[in-house]
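#structure-requests
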Amino acid sequence: MSNVTYPLSKKWIRCAMILTLASSLLVIPVGASPASSVEADAIELKIQAEYLLDTNLSVGESRILSRQQIEELWDGIDPDYSADKAVEAVRSALPEKEYEALFPMRLGSPEWHEFNKGKKDYNPHQVDYYSYQNLINAVRLTANIKYKVSYREGNYSAQEIYRLEKKGKTETLIVRSADFNSPENKSKPIATQIVDYGAFLNEGLEKDRKRDLAALLANLSHETGGGWDEAPGGMLRWGLYWNENIAGKTGQNKSDFVDPASSKEYPGVPGKKYYGRGPIMLSWNFKYGLMSAIIYGDKNVLLKNPESIAADGKLGFATAILFWMTPQAPKPSAHDVMIGRWKPSNEEKAKGLAPAGFGVSIMVLNGLEADLDESNGAIKRRAGHYRDITNRMGVDITGEKINTLGMKPF
């Protein structure tokens, strides 16, 4: 991920220079061929200038970029972050055999079917939702996407978000808040963050890349865990057991999980509920809408079909990876915390959010679990899974702070 502040004055100066050069080149000398390389270069420069000056895209509108435009606006496309290399990184960090040994009771596995056979609401047709192949397919899907969010200085909610489909070189404006270009914000500087989802497990030291995957799976195992202290095989063998919030699924929780403050940008669909689904237990309309916009370039796909997250394991894992890697200011991404890119500010240090590690990743995901040690059940499960997974990976985490004791929310 890159953090860049783009001074608008420099951008406009550059565009003006391009326009001036393009105009001068369009004056073709007498006798020159209309199809001359000079004219072609001038037209190309003029097109680039018009592109850079275009700020009137509507939400949902797309455009295909040239390589030069991708370099200018997206820091290029790094071949080290391709889908194939992202998949290779996952297979290297945690092979399929090791993954299946860690999660024998995952939803739809042979062991899951054997345990649940004959029980109430047992579904004999349940597929292996958390299969290793679904994880791999999700990594391949997300690795083809880059994400760019721009904030107005001093106002994190005044933002616009773009998505780049790397293979098709197609950029889409997926979000623009109503106040991004308001009179009080339009003159404020813009800070921009870019995330390449192909960087998952492909940046940082080898130990930190493995810790990153272990931390993601440990947190997911808690969110979806079905184990208890005396569970057959031990509590830790029951990670990835659920993929829906039970109270939401049964209707015991009557809420539709539509936040009024975000309902204009991410409108809930009548009759649909946005309770926790998938490995990250994605909840609330604005999260469904944002994940939908990043994956599909259209916020409405998952807003109209929230149940598809629980039906498709690849999609479920994709939402978890995106949520893990996407910063949501003022919080960093959990990914940046685990690989060592994020450095706590003095204010964050004063809140106990240091040193970077598994404990801080918990705070990124759930600030309600602040200031807790392993006497708390949630922290006990998260930390237990993290130790278990890193141990199987052969990663030493001695000395790492893996609880939230002494921490306050971001």
